[in-house]
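Hello Y.,

Per our agreement to keep a running log of every chain we model this quarter, I'm adding this entry. I've kept the format consistent with earlier entries: sequence first, then predicted structure.
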Amino acid sequence: WRICKIMRIGGHMTRRHKLRGEEHHRARLSDREVELLRILHEREGWPYSLLMAKFEVSKTCVAKLCRYQCR
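Predicted structure for the entry above:
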């Protein structure tokens, strides 16, 4: 999904789109993988260390996704 920001550049109003999720060029996980990661943590009780190994991302990334601080 996209977040739209209106900015003033050179006296003109312009829109700037901020890409989120798998649309971002540096996304490490697809939206589906993020959903699966959260399900495994919330319903199945998987610890961050196991999720890190399965999805090959850092502990910080896993923690932020599980706490809904990103995406």
